[in-house]
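Would you kindly consider the sequence and fold I have copied below?
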Amino acid sequence: MSSTRILTALLLLSASLAPACKAQLGKNVMIPAGSDADHQLNAINAADPSQKLALIDTFAKSNPDPDFQIVADEQYVNYYLNAKQYEKAFEYGEKLFALDPNNYVNAVNMVRAAAEKGDHTKLFTYGEKANSILANYKAAPPPEGTNPDDWSRIRTEKLVSLRDDEDYVEEALIGGAYNAKDPAKRADYLVRFSKMYPNTPESEQALAVAATAYLQAQNRPKMLEVANGVLAKDPDNIDVLLLLADDYSERGEQLDKADTYAKKAVSLADTLKKPDNISDEEWQKKITIQKGWALSSEGQVSLQKKQSAQAVDSLSKASTLLRSNAGLYARNQYRLGFAYLNLKKTAEATKAFTEAASVDSPYRAMAEDKLSELGTAAKTPAHKKPS
């Protein structure tokens, strides 16, 4: 994390002040080199952690000027952050913002405190604050009397110097969003993340996950809003195509659209490029499940349309592909059982329901009920995980 903005320089005959630091945003507090304040800060920086707080207290009391209080609050924030006393860090961070609203380093430190504490509310509040400070700086006109070309160069250099902090904030935000346990909050955080980083691959992926989280939170209107928004920008987003195909086919709504989305997902699964950060084995497993999921949705569309033979064909193809995912596999076999029943193929239906009941999933009990109705409950094998 970036250091506190303590500006010092050689003591000149005219008692000159230290130059501004290019790597910071916010007020540049000038500390006269060789002054009492300079000596106090040097002592703070050199002190053992057990002695720092008393020295910071002394500095704050002996330098009441608002600019020096900025430096004091920065020292308090760093001390409490390193001591993992996060509430105290937040307290002094807010005091610092009151004196220096555009202090980017303070915003980054608050993000760090919130991330380490696991406080997602504060994490996004301060993350948005950090991004707002950067955005305002990028949009700011040249200061009065500054040549526009010089200003462009200075601004570029400063933004480059802040890149590591900017990357840290982004990573902290996306990590916090994905780790939020409540699906409704997770979805909201991911949408907020996307708004902060629009037109990026991370933004698109965040929205795709947000759509799924909204569905988990039983907020279907928001799921549809977010998912359709993703497809409007990226019609080939396989995750969203699968989500909508599954939702529509399961509910018996917009079946033609569901079928189109499912078929497109099957085609995309064969052409997707493997990301660099995933192994060949993991990638193969992922696309195998995606293709099986899409075929299962195709089969469900056919079931809804009373096209049982087509349903059997799609669901049978999906069966092999979904074996590594208990929930999807069990649901697919449950659907396949009904497709066979519609064709009056009781033996095949019994086999499909038996397979659905053989794995630990929400479909186990329903499959067992169907087997009981068919008079074959005694033949149900011991429950097991799919191979």
